[in-house]
Amino acid sequence: MERNKTNSEIDADFFDDEDEEDTLEGKFLIFAIEDRRYGIPIRYVNEIIGIQQIAEVPDMPYFVKGVINLRGKIIPVIDARLRFHLSTQDYNEKTCTIIISLTGETYIGLIVDIVKEVIQISENQIEPTPTFGEYKEERFIESIAKVKDNINILLNINKILKEEEKLTMHASMDKKEYQTDIGENL
Predict the structure, then answer these.
(1) Domain spans of the chain?
(2) Which of 74, 54, 75, 73 has the alpha carbon at shortest distance from 65?
(3) Angle between helices 176-185 and 163-174 (to 10 degrees)
(4) Cα gap 111→51, rounded to integer Å
C-alpha cells in the first residue's frame, strides 16, 4: 500500500535543488479528489499550504471560496471539488491548498483533498483527452497519463478559469470596500 507523503516531504522533492527550468520538464504534482488523481505541471506550483482562514468575497463564481492573505498577498482560492462538479466535504488535516502561479504575479489557490506525490511523466505515457460531445468542462483537461497502474488526469491550469470568470474575480477583488476588510481580517 502506498504511503501518502507529507507536505514537507513533497516540498523537499521539488523545491530544494531544482531551480533549473529543464529539471522541471515532465514533472507533475499529483493530487487527489475522492479516488481521482489529477496532475499539474510542477513549474506552475509555487507552494503547498494547509487550509487557511478564507474571507468570502461577494459576486465570485460559485467555486471560488474567497481569498486568503498569504504573507501580505491576497490570493483567490478555488475549491477543486466545486470546480469539477463533485460533492463537497468538510476539510480535514489532509486537505491543502496548492498555490499556483498563472502568469507573472497572478496566483490562485486550489483546494484539494490530498497531495499525493511528484512524478515524472514521459510523452509516451500521455494520451489525448477523450471527447465527451458537448461537455464543456473538458476544456481544462489537457490529457490523460497512465503511470504504473494509476490514471492521472492532467490539467491545463491556464484554462481552469474562463475569461469571464477571471474578469468577475478581478472586478470583485478590485472593489475598494473589500480590499481593506480582506487584508485586515485575514
Answers:
(1) 7-185
(2) 54
(3) 80
(4) 8
- Cα dist from 179 to 67, 140, 159, 172, whole Å: 11, 30, 26, 10
Grid look-up 488526469 returns: 153
- Phi, psi (deg, nearest 5) at residue 9: -65, -40
Residue 160 clears pLDDT 60, i.e. is over it:
yes
The per-residue pLDDT for range 52-93, each reduced to its tens digit, is: 999 998 888 889 999 999 999 999 999 999 998 899 999 999
- pTM for the full model? 0.77
Q: Give the type of residue at 126.
A: I
CATH 3.40.50.10470 fits 7-185, yes or no: no
Please state the length of the chain.
Answer: 186
DSSP class of 55: B
Residue 49 phi, psi (nearest 5): -130, 160
Rounded Cα gap, residues 34 and 175, in angstroms: 36
DSSP string covering the chain, please?
A: -PPPPPHHHHHHHHSSS--SHHHHTTEEEEEEETTEEEEEEGGGEEEEEE----B--TT--TTEEEEEEETTEEEEEEEHHHHTT-------TT-EEEEEEEETTEEEEEEESEEEEEEE--GGGEEEPPP-TT-GGGGGEEEEEEETTEEEEEE-GGGSS-HHHHHHHHHHHH-HHHHHHHHHH-
